[in-house]
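Readers outside the structure-tokenisation community will struggle with the description of the input data as it stands. For illustration, here is how one protein appears when written out as sequence plus structure tokens:
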Amino acid sequence: MTHLVAVGGSDAGIAAALRARELDPSTDVTVVLADEFPNFSICGIPYWVSGDVATEASLAHRTRGDLEAAGMTVRSSTWASAVDVDRQLLSVTGPAGEEQIAYDELLIGTGAEPVRPAGIPFGKPGIHLLHSMTDAEQVVAALELLPAGSRVAVVGAGYIGLEMTEGLVARGFDTTLIQRGPEVLSTLDPGLGSLVTEEVRRHGATVLTGATVTGITPAGGGQWSVATTSTFGDAAGTFALVVVCVGVRPVTDLAVAAGAQLGQAGAIVVDEQMRTGVPHVWAAGDCVVTHHRLLGTTWLPLGTTAHKQGRVAGENMLGGSRTFAGSVGTQVVKVFDLVAARTGLRHHETAPLDVSPLTRVTVADDHKRYYPGAVPLTISVTGDHTSGRLLGAQIVGERTAEISKRIDTFATALHAGLSVDDVIDLDLSYTPPLGSPWDAVQVAAQGWERAAAAANPAGVSV
């Protein structure tokens, strides 16, 4: 009987364990995790903070009982500290003290940890990171002690920062969002990001863009003074609570100690079958490099990617030969009544490729205008002007407009290596309440082709 050990009880580790048990129910699987939250949805944390998700327990993809019923041994509150590669032993420290767990195959799925900018007094009451379930519990407990209308600052306007801002506004807090970039959501081009910035402001939050936090100091009475600098000068605001969401970095200490190599962004180097190169040691999830179908090897920590990588690892740990098909970086977020999504590459991100990028922004209705409720979608398409190959897309529009469906259309086209012209030819569904004979993604593709033709008056085929 094969004994698999997965370090990390989030997306990659659990996906690997489930796949192994699915393929061979006799496989002995142990999952080691440092906290008490196996298989919880970290992406759902802002919605529990906001109250949209009623209970913390609702964030569990599967309960501990579900995992044990699936045949796993779950070792929670247990830290993995070392790997004896020659003897195939994992050293851990848990409630029973130090011990060693023997394995036939080991998966390292240690994920990522939040970046801790200098000058921020983490660990002090009122200063919070938001990355883990423990973080979320602390934030919720702190918020429940604050009266409605208290001033709260969110540092970082990525996906989690935006979702947290929405949740805090919904709970009645006077919320300020601080963003270093020119607009919120720096994964979008500024022109589309500005639409999201406007949406946040429209719902009553203060948004400081182009602002860098230079220090956070006590202001008395349990308040904190947050100092910022920007092109408009230096400023400071006083807040009862500060939530910091400024990105993550891979956690690799265990893998490095076992002999694994590091690559892009300091993530663990793995091949497309999730091998580390260390005998019987595999890795997957936010701690490893990502095979990108356009860029090659990069680092792009996403939950969807971690699930797929874990599944590949779980199959191959039992002797399979499955490969991770690769990512195109598809992402989507709801911000109040807007949805913003992207897939593939933005114009400047194509620099490593041998292409001539052309980007065109088109505004198209989500469905036929004569049917009530039609709303505009702002769609950016990037393609190779020389070959016509699709390279990326971004969409911003109202939540009712099925943004995720439409970005997934572009993502599928990218995965298949289609051209922009191929997107125009896709046989997409149509009914007046939901779309048009030419769907909005095809209208945007046609807009790109017109721009390409205008930039190529000689009429050379694209």
User: Anything to note?
Assistant: The first strand starts at residue 3 and ends at 7. The mean pLDDT is 95. The two ends are 57 Å apart (CA to CA). DSSP finds eleven helices and 25 strands in the chain.
